[in-house]
């Protein structure tokens, strides 16, 4: 799988590199520069820098409380770091609200699933396309002109994603009735519906059984393959991370202790001490 | 057909039309409660304020004239022209939208993530504030509101029922119009919430704030939108009630009648608000018709609350509300 046989990989240059399985990874999409995030006296993230390249699957790992989710919340605009900058597409990003970040093409899922429980699966996924809709209120209400074409185009995109993630059979089901694993998949579908340039996944496999985990891994890889979606994911399950990701950032107590290919990270002394050494699996 | 049955039928019809008027007020509550989880105590006062503003515009009253006169010794009262109703209504809509923007800017924005009870208290404050502003702006005297809706007994209903039953029913034409307008309003709201981007966003915000943010929905915009719509619904309710019984302070008290309607229909359901309003309207009239001779009248004042109390015992989520399930 990706990330293995690293000897064949070019050294990362600004033009990107080619992975062992032949996927082209582009230049830097986003750069986190000296990020420090504090909650009162508690330092959640301490002076962390790393970059995310176009087309790659980038993992952030670390023990509980390492600050992984905080980092994801910084990227998606839910938290604002006291120090440091987020550079997106080469420009320093000003302080933005989460909905503005979403409109820039950064979609996310949540650790504790945040779906619209009262809506059907289809409606949930359609909300992912809200900021692709341009027709005015009157046209929409009257089902006129561009509104109808737009709705059709949006539906088409959504159906494509529904097919892709194999959730056709539940498209009309209210989300509240779905089992946990499927909810996670619907959340992924909603994020994908936005056609994001960067996809953020907060523990996409937490609480799943082995079979569900395998499915989800396959979907993440297929999405990356098919749409070329740049993916940042947080995960606990080491095996999964090593199989999935192109490069890995390792955090511990808010600090970055490792950054590199899965191979490099696996052989990093600090990482072994902080994380792998105490793994219970 | 026996007289009692005929009278009961007439009472039922009157109850249905009266119920529509209650439902109109309840609708405004449901909209805001659904989108933001706030019980907006100020909804009734918003209806009063909207009606006052409409009358003020129509008659060309100078806003704050009493205040200006008291401060500068002037004798201002009217501009000296009348604004046509077709212009005064859009102007009032604009005022209600402005009010929504101000409410978001000065109240909601600062109370994000607070307990519902704190937001509820804020709306009580808003109710008193708005009541005062309405008085200062337009004066406290009772005003007649006429937007050209027909009033008085409906001749058509009277004739038709007389031809069928030999007894003409008395139905107020205004209330028939109110029913038609309420139906239009509900249809418009349904189309809006089901088929437009903003409607979808509104339902999304009502469901989960965090998820709504993550798909690019601005909460602040949606709040302004919700309060604007609630303001417009308040205007419609204000027009109906104002045409019926004059624009005066007691208009804001009809909000209290909306409370039992909401308890019956459920706080989160638009159809619930309508059906709840109808049940209360009909129940009130029938109960009054059958029980007043026995217990001495004036049952309309308390019947709705008693019915709500019974509902609270057996179905606290209302007829259409989301079922309340506590998981431990």
From TrEMBL, chain A:
Coiled-coil intervals: none
Start and end residues of each ABC transporter domain: 30-278
Entry's transmembrane regions: none
Keyword Glycoprotein: no
One of the Pfam families matching this protein, by short name: ABC_tran
Single annotated GO MF: ATP binding
PROSITE patterns reported for this sequence: ABC_TRANSPORTER_2
GO cellular component, one term: plasma membrane
InterPro entries xrefs: AAA+_ATPase (IPR003593), ABC_AA/LPS_Transport (IPR051120), ABC_transporter-like_ATP-bd (IPR003439), BCA_ABC_TP_C (IPR032823), P-loop_NTPase (IPR027417)
Keywords: ATP-binding, Nucleotide-binding, Transport
Protein name: Amino acid/amide ABC transporter ATP-binding protein 1 (HAAT family)
Organism: Roseinatronobacter thiooxidans
TrEMBL record, chain B:
Single Gene Ontology BP annotation: amino acid transport
Transmembrane segments: 12-33, 45-64, 84-107, 119-140, 176-196, 217-241, 261-282, 294-314
Intracellular or extracellular location(s): Cell membrane
Domain of life: Bacteria
Membrane topology, record value: Multi-pass membrane protein
Keywords: Amino-acid transport, Cell membrane, Membrane, Transmembrane, Transmembrane helix, Transport
GO cellular component term of the entry, any: plasma membrane
CDD domains: TM_PBP1_LivH_like (cd06582)
Molecular function in Gene Ontology: transmembrane transporter activity
InterPro entries from the UniProt entry: ABC_transp_permease, BCAA_transport_permease
Primary location class: membrane
Pfam families assigned to the protein according to its UniProt record, in alphabetical order: BPD_transp_2
Protein family membership: Belongs to the binding-protein-dependent transport system permease family. LivHM subfamily.
Protein name stated in the entry: Amino acid/amide ABC transporter membrane protein 1 (HAAT family)
Lineage, uppermost ranks: Bacteria, Pseudomonadati, Pseudomonadota, Alphaproteobacteria, Rhodobacterales
